[in-house]
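Dear colleague,

Thank you for sharing your sequence with our group. We've completed the structure prediction you requested, and as agreed, I am returning the results in plain text so they can be pasted directly into your records. Please verify that the sequence below matches your submission; if there's any discrepancy, let me know and we will rerun it promptly.
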Amino acid sequence: MQLAQKIIIADDHPLFRAALKQAVTQAVPGVTILEADTLAAVQETVEAHVDADLVLLDIHMPGAQGFSGLVFLRGQHPGIPVVVVSGSEEPQVMKRAIDFGASGFIPKSAPLEVISEAIAAVLQGDEWLPQEISDSLDDLVTEEDQKFAAALASLTPQQFRVLTMLTEGLLNKQIAYELSVSEATIKAHVTAILRKLGVHSRTQAVIAAQRLGVELPKPAV
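Please find the predicted structure tokens below.
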């Protein structure tokens, strides 16, 4: 007897989560749906349900810094496919998500039937992008991006949370308060983060993390 499939919906907007639940139920009868509204909650949910079949991830949810959440989830749980569901609908952003390990990219403007079709395709092992997205787009992730993504994926969940808070400009004592640990523990995490990312300061770590931003650099005039 085949077990019911389990899908995690990660989005901070309740109305859109409800719409995604409808699309998922339509695509996968009998599915078990789990919800998360922050990136930290996504991590906790995935860690508690390592048998999940799919994560539908909004890259703009609280705690997410560009594609960092996608990269981290793929690194920590490579067996669980992740589909990005986002309001950022530029073809280059969609292609970059695929290059960083997403199994698909669903625009939030897509009709429910298209979202259902995309979910079903990914669960069958396919990669899904909107039909109008050209296959001829060049790879948008550089070798340096890939190297940093691999380093980011090597962080522990707590180290990743600390890095995310660093990018938000929080001080060690503020991070310690938010995570209910000592400031010495945060200092140890920061030291480990710098070593793993191959940088020498908090500022360099933040700049490196910005490599995974969603916004693409504007071409020179």
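Summary note from our side: DSSP finds ten helices and five strands in the chain.

Kind regards,
the structure core
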